[in-house]
Amino acid sequence: MTQISDETLMAYADGELSADETKKVRAALEVDSLLQEKLERHHALNASITDAFSALDNVPLPRGLTDILARTKAEHERAAAATKAAINSPSVWQRFLSKLQLPSWQQGAVAASLLVVAALSVQQFTRSPASDFSEQTAILLDSVSSGSAAQAILVTASYQRTDGTFCRSFTQAVKPQELTLACKEAGATWQMAGTQVLPPPGSFLPAGAGGIATLVSDMRLLSKTEESGFLK
Fold it and tell me: What are the residue ranges spanned by the domains of the chain?
């Protein structure tokens, strides 16, 4: 019997040897019947493994698992749709200005005035010691339902991380072109998770832009009923 190891023989069968090594094994196979038998057994083993996995591929998934996969896909699609709608929709302040039907230069002046008033009102609130937001913003995040505007913020959607953390996306009067995502663990304070500058009304984010949509892609979009369980 020639000195060809089992590892080399298997590598030969799988086409993983160099040209010189392949030539050496072929020469050995021509004169060594035991080596030929080993090669045939290896081919037979590979074929049986391939057949076994092919059979598994044809076995349908359990109903419970397919239901979970379908629900997960639907929740991700709802979250993506809600976030896209929030990103590509005019803010409550932009809609307010458009309804006034003012010339563009007057709209700018009114918007500037609103921002000043909003900024002054926000400055009156003290920031919670361990929070990324003012005390008033934290109160609003704890109480305002999605799709509603209250004082200086508009809450767009509510989400839940896999660990149970409650998260909300919203815009603020002082930054109407910025969408913010805040999260709050049980018994903790609201923390900034991310921000994203919104595109002008009528335009869209380019594919793969990421931002808030990426952050919420692994979260579950909450229904009104589920959201109410987190609100005070």
Answer: 6-57, 76-228
